Amino acid sequence: MSLSRKACHATAWYPLALLALLAACGPKPEPALSGLDLPGRFLDPAAAAPVRWPEPEWWRGFNAPALDALMQAAIAGNFDLAAAAARVRQADAQLRIAGAALLPTLAVDSGVTQSRSTASGLSRNRNATRYDATLTASYEIDFWGRNSASAEAAAQNARATRFDAGTVLLTTEASVANTYFNLLAAEEELRVQEANLDAARRTLGVIRQQVNFGVATGLDLAQQETVVAQVEANIPGLRQSAAQNRNALALLTGQPPQSFTLGAGAFDRLRIPEAAPGQPADLLARRPDVLAAEAGLAAASANVAAARAALLPSISLSAQGGLQSAALGTLLRPEAQFFSLVAGLAQTIFDGGARRGQVALSQAQAEELLIEYRRAIVAALQDTEDALVALRETTAQEALRAEANARAERAFGIAEAQLRAGTINLITLLNTQQSLFSTRVSLVQARLARLQAAVALFRALGGGWR
């Protein structure tokens, strides 16, 4: 090969090398980074305990078989979970649509054309038949990465949708647990109020006897009757709360209330499972809402890259080939073949600023999602700190309420005995009685608050959705 021919071949590669260099300089999506400095540890002392992330079925630690059955029913029939699964399928379909732009388009066409014409000056018609089969291919070269950026945006949106479904699952599980505990608490408080009513009626009976013997006055009797009436007035609201929580559980499991059944449960037999977070960075990797915000930011960054690439020229290739003949028998002969290849370069000269406006819009959307990503991170850290302190303080509160209730039970027993012996005044009796009734209800509410704090902690730690 002569030197001049070698030089010509080398020169022919220069435009291709230049195009490759230009393509490498095309817009690229920015990485999805929050720019926040994460703390090295949580503030609450409980975070110093050995790391113990929630189990996938974290609710089983509460020792409530009925809750286990409710969770399974909710996972199978909850409407929000079903809708989230449908949104995931929609996002997957959108990803396939976006990815199709990276592949060539093929089309095949075949037909038979029958035509008739009349020659000028002749009365005889002329018939003509044409047979053809055509294969057409077109492909837009993704030179600047616009189509790949759009596909990346769709892929990140699909990831975000899956993480959103994880958030829905975690929210549903927490709602089922909290609603079940509310139901048990309402039933327990109803039992407590009925016990209070029995105690108040016993006291009322003793005072009536004392009134008959002239030991007590009508005012004493009226005051105790007021206590009985007040306790009775608390009962209908508790029955309402229990029924409504039961109906809410039916909705959460996707069942009509009329056909919903629930196994028996004991409020005082519930256990509080343990959980302890690791490092804040580890927490963020477990939170589906944080991961969804990160994926949304990545999708927005890819949309910015696609919008910028749309400002640059587009290159397309199209090819067409096939067979065409006036007779079906000669359709496969070489002379019936035809072929064409077209390369095109298109560049928008004026569009009223629409494309640059799309770039500005995509950038503003990415800025908004960056803020939302930062908000999700800070909110996740706050949720965990709040849940840790809530569980610690409600645990202490329940212990104090239990001690206060034990003291009130002992004091009321003494007061009741003194009442029968006629050695106590009514004011002391009423105060002791009200203290007992109050501490019984407060103990139930403290127990419920601790259970809800535990659920909040499991939810803050990402549950077991992964």
From TrEMBL:
SUPFAM superfamilies: Outer membrane efflux proteins (OEP) (SSF56954). GO terms for molecular function: efflux transmembrane transporter activity. Keywords: Lipoprotein, Membrane, Palmitate, Signal, Transmembrane, Transmembrane beta strand. It is found in: Cell membrane. It is a lipid-anchor. Residues 1-23 form the signal peptide. One of its GO terms (cellular component) is plasma membrane. Pfam families: OEP. The keyword Transmembrane helix does not apply. Gene3D superfamilies: Outer membrane efflux proteins (OEP). Belongs to the outer membrane factor (OMF) (TC 1.B.17) family. This is RND transporter. It comes from Teichococcus aestuarii. The lineage of its organism: Bacteria, Pseudomonadati, Pseudomonadota, Alphaproteobacteria, Acetobacterales.
